[in-house]
TrEMBL record:
Its main location: membrane. It comes from Frigoriglobus tundricola. This is Nitrate/nitrite transporter NarK/U 1. GO terms for biological process: nitrate assimilation. Keywords: Membrane, Nitrate assimilation, Transmembrane, Transmembrane helix. It comes from the Bacteria. Residues 18-447 form the Major facilitator superfamily (MFS) profile domain. It holds the Pfam family MFS_1. CDD domains: MFS_NRT2_like. One of its GO terms (cellular component) is membrane. Coiled coil: none annotated. Gene3D superfamilies: MFS general substrate transporter like domains. The chain crosses the membrane at residues 20-42, 54-73, 85-101, 113-134, 183-202, 232-254, 306-325, 337-355, 361-382, 394-416, 422-440.
Amino acid sequence: MTVGSTSHAAPDAGRRARVLALSTAAFTLLFAVWLMLGMLSIKIKPELGLTDGQLYNLTIAAILAGSLGRFHFGIWTDRYGGRRVMTALLLFTVLPTLLVSRATSFEELLACALLYGVAGNSFTVGIAWNAAWYPKERQGLALGVFGAGNVGASVTKLIGPLLIAAVPAAGFFGGLVPGGWRFVPVAYAVLLVLMAAAVWFGTPRADRTPARGRAFSELVAPMKHAKVWEYCLQYAVVFGAYVALSGVLPLYYFTNYGAGLAASLGLNEQLVAEFDTIRGLKGDAHAAYLAAHPAVKTDLDYLSKWIGLLAAVCYIFPASLLRPVGGWLSDRYGARVVTAGVFWAMLASGAVLSLPLGLGVWAFTAALFVLGVGMGIGKASVYKMIPEHFPREVGSVGGLVGMLGALGGVLLPLAWAAVPGSTFPALLALTTVSGLWFAAGTVTDRKPKPVPETVAVS
């Protein structure tokens, strides 16, 4: 039997653990890069004079680049091994990430987003890679641990404001390394190179490639099953919506609750009184105002830190770090039982966030926390069902589910931009449709049978 064939002998724990640890670290970093404009947009928007529509377009461009290739990345991982594909993805992302620090216009940022956005495909790579290394009875927990790398969405929100405040505005070495928000993509570019070296030299050279020697038609055969498309919609709810909210949540907090947060934090009275006016300034006018009112600028930076902390701790952390819990629960009680609980939590919190209840910032944050808990657990339970039904097509099926699910992260921002105030109602509508399909599937197919395994080709 060749290295590339599917063996039922469990690999040793040390090699398996290295794959999980390094793939999770790489995914966390790549996910942070993928969604870095979410937090940086607070600084980029006034400096470059961008509109809300342009910011949405930048978010959509990055999400599309990290979504449309997932199907192929899943197949490539099963054919050539996660070690090769993950290393190549890390290295490809370095240059466009670095160029973000030099962007001076919307067009330049858009070109960078389309290229560094490819980082989002790392999820499919890691899912297929770890599924090939872990036995069925431990796949839920393993895939949940890997998927917790979604916490990368909060990395920029937490460290971005700190780096912006800590690094001199003029940067280092005469501006060769820029300061301010431009330092963040430079730091990420360096980390991407180091992570590529860690993955290449730290994971087993003799990788597992379950799709080696199999025809493409065989790999895509499961697409005729309705279950695949059910999983796609479920993943749009628990992951696509997560990506969309992660990208816009800092700006949402800033726009809807910024003045109230500034007041509750006891910040500059002028900032509180003139918040809407300051928020509307762009380009040179914004820079001139802050230069003339340094106390306002200091408190704006402080407010940005608080917004990043709220978005991370109260939404992104539970929506990411609870994924291993969702995997463990799915291994123990069954993925469909766990997914049912996820839908109830998301429907309840989504209704609270959607109804015109006049929520204050802390009530809003509490409901958002419940929503994040549901998403974090649901991302694991949905993916746990894939190897149960399609044990030898995890790369292709997982890639398609990841691709179409992540497209929810594109469609939702489009809906939000087209219909003001539709942020949470649109998410609630999507959750309701997916929940009804899930319920119908539970009634008609209580005991789904896995797709029969075919004979592996050595």
